[in-house]
Write a structure and sequence with these properties.
single chain, alpha+beta, Aminopeptidase, seven-stranded mixed beta sheet, two-stranded antiparallel sheet, 9 strands
Length: 179
Amino acid sequence: MDDTLIYRKIELEELNLDLFRKFERRQNVARQLQKQGDAWVEKPVSLVEEWSREDYEFLLTCLQNTIQEGGVVFGAFEGNAVKGFASISGKPFGYAGTYRDLTSLHVSRELRGRGIGTRLFHLAAGWALAMGGQKLYIAANPAIESQLFYRALGCTDAMELNEEHVKNGPTDRQMEYVL
């Protein structure tokens, strides 16, 4: 676990491009888990996922909307720069309104593997539970590292599907975490 970072809520007025000036969203993906029938099958791929300025601008809009609609964004800070963040929608969903949506969880490339994502995940889960949620909903990136991360935390395939997530990320694995 990386104890040199400060973990806290990010306030709406803090959300600007400068906050992410030292954040590197880059992932070299060599293997994905893809759904084939009822099974998840490992497939070799060769792609690089990297955010552009436009991607960061879109991210800011999404995070601002999350806070404005009653959700929360947690950050892992190194000085005044975000090195990891997690966001949770404030809107419950699902048949009985028991799900809270983990809309993002990212750690800057150079700091992955140090427990930052795990700590942010648990901050998000604690907030969702305090807000009356019973489960976190995760649309996990198909990269095998992402899916193994969530599995290691105890996430399982979602019992209810969020059709918007399925439509927007047809290769994502829809998962849940019981709070």
